[in-house]
Amino acid sequence: AQKVTQAQTEISVVEKEDVTLDCVYETRDTTYYLFWYKQPPSGELVFLIRRNSFDEQNEISGRYSWNFQKSTSSFNFTITASQVVDSAVYFCALSSPLYNQGGKLIFGQGTELSVKP
Amino acid sequence: GAGVSQSPRYKVAKRGQDVALRCDPISGHVSLFWYQQALGQGPEFLTYFQNEAQLDKSGLPSDRFFAERPEGSVSTLKIQRTQQEDSAVYLCASSPGPRGIQPQHFGDGTRLSIL
Q1: How many CB atoms lie within 10 A of CB A67?
Q2: Which whole number is the average pLDDT over A91-111?
Q3: CA nearest B104: which of A41, A97, A28, A56?
Q4: Taking the CB of residue B108, how many other CB atoms lie within 10 A of it?
């Protein structure tokens, strides 16, 4: 079975603090993709990053960074120097296109991040 | 258009009525997905189309749910004899190629409320 767990339901920080959102996944497949999406109050899911299972290199994009560790089945997301505009619900997701033909996304329950000024 | 477009944005229906939700994917996108998102939860997969072919409908919760994409572009999700537990946000997503390897682009969703 495939599963994504985001244990942190809500996180509240003060602007300029660093914050890490945790994501743990389960899959038996050797080929899979991991994603992070942001859902602001407007409701649209905004794509942030995709990693494939063969690339464990960490990635940095501006204030965002991602730490992928296959040994612990984790794909954590860090926001450095958080800003009020980062307030949103963040979802981690998993897909296995070779296992299920369509590549449907399996989402975690989301972490609601609140950044206060 | 530039992004995935869904209509209506909000839909209120009485229990027992039929509803139809529309999705206009990004032009040229092969794959189209429907998800259901309950309040405070992550989206859950409903069904997947590759062009006009519905390749996976394993997530449809009952035979009251039906989806189609007859010409491989616009898709409609229909719910017959709606019940209160159908209240949710219905999200549509599209991606350029088959198999969902490329990132899915989501619409704003349709918020369905069943009274």
Answers
A1: 15
A2: 85
A3: A97
A4: 18
